[in-house]
Write a structure and sequence with these properties.
The chain is mostly beta strands. It has helices at residues 5-27, 71-74, 131-134; strands at residues 52-53, 64-66, 91-94, 104-105, 111-115, 121-129, 138-140, 152-159, 162-165, 171-177, 185-190, 195-200, 210-220, 236-244. The strands form four sheets. Strands 1, 5, 7, 8, 9 and 13 form a six-stranded mixed sheet that branches. A three-stranded antiparallel sheet has the order 2-3-4, with no helix packed on it.
């Protein structure tokens, strides 16, 4: 049997081609892979902190004594165990804040509001006399009682250097307390609660907080006829409200 040399040559060429093609096919294979990265929010902390120190007021802070005849100073405070009273005054508040020379003066202890937060706050103070308690005593805006011969009572609110008479309509003072200076708060981490914090720094040397103090002052008319009012107990009402500054809400 004769071999067809032409066919053998063709078969040889095809075999050689397959050998040459095989490595090329291997190099064309693609290796693929994938992975997923998971993000985590470390934490969130509110930096708009509302922190206001409100007044600590005793139940008798604004009680007052009316003394149109100046009987107390005329008798050296004999009824009050020798306590000292402001000379020349006709109305007295008990002083316990250590900011007055006398035990009783014509001006009350102060009520103080301090902003220790990172947002400004609006403060509204309202002072009024309770009408039903006056029993005929007349309210006036004139501390000197010029030309007045009635049993008149003068009350006013002191806000720093400002004086606002109370009168029959009452007195309202509105003011804004600024936020703390930048850098007064700092971030921290509470291990027990497992969360981040934003609090006042422990070292507050040099930090000045915005504060407002209010006092009540008063006097009565020495020229009035007070005999019929010996059993009368006029009452003064003081209230305050602190809210986040409107434009920052």
């Amino acid at each position: 049997m004769k071999l067809d040399r032409g066919k053998l040559f063709t078969a040889f060429i095809l075999a050689a081609a397959m050998v040459m093609i095989s490595p090329v096919s291997s190099l064309a294979e693609i290796e693929e892979g994938s992975d997923i990265g998971i993000g985590k929010v470390e934490g969130s902390v509110r930096t708009d902190v509302y922190q206001v120190v409100l007044p600590t007021v005793g139940s008798h802070t604004f009680d007052f004594i009316i003394d149109p005849l100046e009987l107390i100073n005329q008798t050296d405070g004999a009824r009050y165990g020798g306590k000292s009273f402001e000379k020349g005054s006709t109305l007295f508040f008990r002083r316990t804040d250590g900011e007055a020379k006398e035990d009783y003066s014509s001006t009350s202890n102060s009520i103080t509001i301090t902003n220790k937060g990172t947002i400004p706050v609006d403060v509204s103070l309202n002072v009024r006399m309770i009408p039903d308690s006056l029993g005929g005593i007349r309210m006036t805006n004139d501390r000197k009682f010029t030309g007045d011969t009635s049993a008149s009572l003068y009350m006013a609110v002191l806000d720093g250097e400002n004086i606002m008479p109370v009168g029959m309509d009452g007195a309202r003072i509105n003011t804004t307390l600024a936020a703390v200076p930048e850098g007064t708060f700092e971030y921290g981490y509470d291990k027990a609660k497992g969360r981040y914090t934003y609090k006042l720094k422990k070292n507050l040397d040099g930090v000045v907080f915005d504060t407002r103090s209010f006092r009540v002052t008063g006097a009565v008319n020495k020229k009035g006829k007070w005999q019929q009012f010996e059993e009368t107990s006029p009452k003064i009402a003081i209230s305050w409200k602190v809210t986040q500054k409107k434009e920052d809400r």
